[in-house]
Design brief:
By secondary structure, the protein is an alpha+beta fold. It is 42% helix and 25% strand. The protein has three helices and five strands. The strands form two sheets. The protein has a three-stranded antiparallel β-sheet. Strands 1-2 form a two-stranded antiparallel ribbon. The longest helix is centred in the last third of the chain and has 13 residues, at 49-61.
Amino acid sequence: MTTTFLSCNADITVVEGDADLLRVSAEFQEMPDLVVTVAQASRLFGVDHAHSRRILDTLVNRGILSTDGRQFARGGTGR
């Protein structure tokens, strides 16, 4: 299964089994107070800026993360 959504004026498809997606999701579950920007997530998770943005947007779309438009945090933390 794939998920397609519009982000940064480009159609982006993320494969359901994407290892980076699963890894980033697990990091937020293990560190519930983690709050990052896209640039910080890119450095922390060792992926390029565009891929980091796709991962974070996908996790927001799935309700795992929330965002205030700049920072990303685990869903339900008020961000």
